[in-house]
Amino acid sequence: MESNDRNKIDKAGFATPRGGQKGAYQNHVLRSNRVIVPFEHLQSAPLGDFENGYVVRLFPDQYFKKAGKIKKKFKGPDAPVTVGEDAFILYRTHSQYDEFPPLVGWKLRWLELDGKEVSKRRPGVVDHGDYVLRIAARGNLASRVEGPPQGIFAPEYANAEANYLTKCVLAWLTVHTLDAPYVAAQAKLLEAILEAEGLLSTVEWERLGLIRAGHTACPLCMGLIRYDELHNQVEFEDESALSNAGEQVFDATRSTVVNLFHLAPLVYSSIEHGPTNVAWGHATCNTKLGQRKCHSLRELIESGAKVGTVDGSGSIRTFGWSSENLEMIRSPMGAVWIRVSEDRLTEDEQGELLDLLNTGL
Hints:
By secondary structure, the protein is α+β, with helices and mostly antiparallel strands. It contains ten helices and 21 strands.
């Protein structure tokens, strides 16, 4: 493959959380690295699946009852984690540091290899210390960034094999974009690898919206993806839902028109980055989808949940199909409606609103 395509596919194999520094995350490193598990997600995270280990992040108010006083649950042999061993404290504000200062004897985290302190995480490195500072500047108080990154964002984790196969899927999809500088015969090795792993299914990919009419497509808007969109910078002029975004980020974003797209959102409770959950999709479609599952048109038609409008005479006009959780609607021609918020009215408020509607107000 051409170097720019190899680079884009390699980049998809890296964990790259937004705002990673303030969470003490490693940025743009292999997805198979050690992960950070927030303490509030400790019970639901698949800890046994993190092949290169994990470390638990605690905020000061989670660990301390008050300054110098540790909460009871973190004491004794039954404590869920131990700071300095399988956990660390992350300070993110000056007020946190002032209200819950490090205990006497605590040290900043550091890395050691063969008995010597090192600056970068690498195989064989051992962590020492108890806390990390990622404190933003405020007023006259300067920022403090002290202690090395502790691991990657846990939802972006994938073991080395899953990560490799995911890149194989993305490479195949790259070959099948419109106007790609490749012919299908060049993808035979990719197809052999994917077929050997039971992953090559153009019928299923068509059903899920990864391809349409034999070409790579965006799973959300169903638009065919042109090869140059993998590398051209995104623009927002034609995006009605992002009408002022172009002015806000014009010439300031490095995002391309098409990027890595997950059919189901990445979550703490399970490992979702894998070859059956990825595609190429528009950056703007990724933004609109957010943390929701992308239901394909065929999936919604199969579910049989039709939706429509009712006019004043009681006539019903069906215009699409909805997911069971009512989160997404698609029309037969590919238009998409996405629920942007949950219900907020109480039952009494809903009743009052229905009464108003029934009286024609």
